[in-house]
Amino acid sequence: MTQTSSREIISTRQRKLAELAREAPDRVLTTLAHHMDLLWMEEAYRRTRKDGAAGVDGVTAHEYEAALTANLTDLLDRFKSGRYRAPPVRRVHIPKEGTTKTRPIGIPTLEDKVLQRAVLMVLEPIYEQDFLDCSYGFRPGRSAHQALDALWQGLTVQRGGWVIDLDIQAYFDSVSHTHLRAFLDRRVRDGVIRRVLGKWMNAGVLEQGVLEHPEGGVPQGGCISPVLSNLYLHEVLDLWFEREVKPRTGGRSFMLRFADDAILVFEREDDARRVLEVLPKRLERFGLTLHPEKTRLVDFRRPDRQSGGTQRDRSFDVLGFTHYWGRSRKGRWVVTRKTARSRFTRTLRRFNAWCRRHRHLPVADQRSMLNRKLRGHDAYFGVTGNALALSRLRYEVQSRWRKWLNRRSGRAYMNWAQFKGLLQNHPLQPARVVHSVYAT
């Protein structure tokens, strides 16, 4: 069987699962594991990233592929018979740029990644029929730019309002297993799948030779984590806002969520303050806590309707962009976005580090790589209204490029006039708006 035909078979099965879930939104599905066969496992392996670090067993993709069919057959048999034992996740810490803090990263074994991908391929078509349109993070066919466009459209139509910039403290480590199991019971009760989900929740974390078993949280590092996390907040936040909050507000309101970050927008101040007052109680009921510093209420009405405050008080950051009110070319008030200061600083620090490490390369090679990095930056941050920040980044990158070119041993000092002559022969990529709100 060709690879293309096998993908079509898997896609057909997933469409049938989606149709079944869509036609019966209240039905509890009790038999799902039979969809998973060797063909399903082979497709799951194909979708699994192969170049990641090895887990606690040290097995690499190259070693696993030496007897791929036999390994996948054995994995499938252990999964369905209940003999599969979820290995602990190896945890490492990577530094957070610009701070002394570190970020924990979980590294499952390759086999665990494959099985998680296979289970995800079953669960995703089902829950995609249940999740609301306000949710964008880690969902197929949805991106951060779609979330940003939806937020921009909502703020523009509603003419701003009162914004709750919501952030949940240590969300992925705080998910209650008891509540998560209850949420899973409402839709999926297949014994085989539920058994392995329980094993992943209780597998534990191995850090510096010490095995720990957290009482809460979702499996770290694996692909099953996003769908479980989205399911949890779908029940805790999304449905609550749609069914209980919106019908009780006196004005218009809407919500947008990307993973554990959410933006709640209200036309009236009293509605926003009432929701902000009950939010901690709502989250506490499910073992979650609002971040005391990052969660705040923003008066995001047009500046001519506000009572004052600094620019920071009148703006908020989400998905790497600062949202604020600005003037259009015709002098009208419009919702504008620019690269958030923290993201701009982080990007510039990375460019500086690259120029320092690779200053020995030929200038043409440096120019080529810098242009690739700038195009990648524009692919995300190149949105309508952000041209000034994109141009400023070019200027700052040029400054740092010149600085490190001047520090190559045995080279004469190059002033700005001489550097501009170099740029004529080796120009950097001009700033480009990739995502326009006016595009059809």
Label this structure with key terms.
single chain, 440 residues, alpha+beta, four-stranded mixed beta sheet, four-stranded antiparallel beta sheet, 11 strands, globular
Draw up the topology in text.
Layout: H1 3-23, H2 38-47, H3 61-65, H4 68-81, E1 89-95, E2 102-107, H5 110-127, H6 144-158, E3 161-167, H7 171-174, H8 177-185, H9 191-201, E4 205-207, E5 210-212, H10 224-245, E6 253-258, E7 261-266, H11 269-284, E8 296-300, E9 316-318, E10 321-327, E11 333-339, H12 341-357, H13 363-381, H14 387-405, H15 416-425
Parallel strand pairs: 1-4
Antiparallel strand pairs: 1-2, 3-7, 3-8, 4-5, 6-7, 9-10, 10-11
In words, what does this structure look like?
The protein is α+β, with helices and mostly antiparallel strands and 440 residues long. Helices cover 48% and strands 14% of the residues. It is built from 15 helices and eleven strands. The protein has helices at 3-23, 38-47, 61-65, 68-81, 110-127, 144-158, 171-174, 177-185, 191-201, 224-245, 269-284, 341-357, 363-381, 387-405, 416-425; strands at residues 89-95, 102-107, 161-167, 205-207, 210-212, 253-258, 261-266, 296-300, 316-318, 321-327, 333-339. The strands form three sheets. It has a four-stranded mixed beta sheet with strand order 2-1-4-5, with no helix packed on it. The two termini are 41 Å apart.
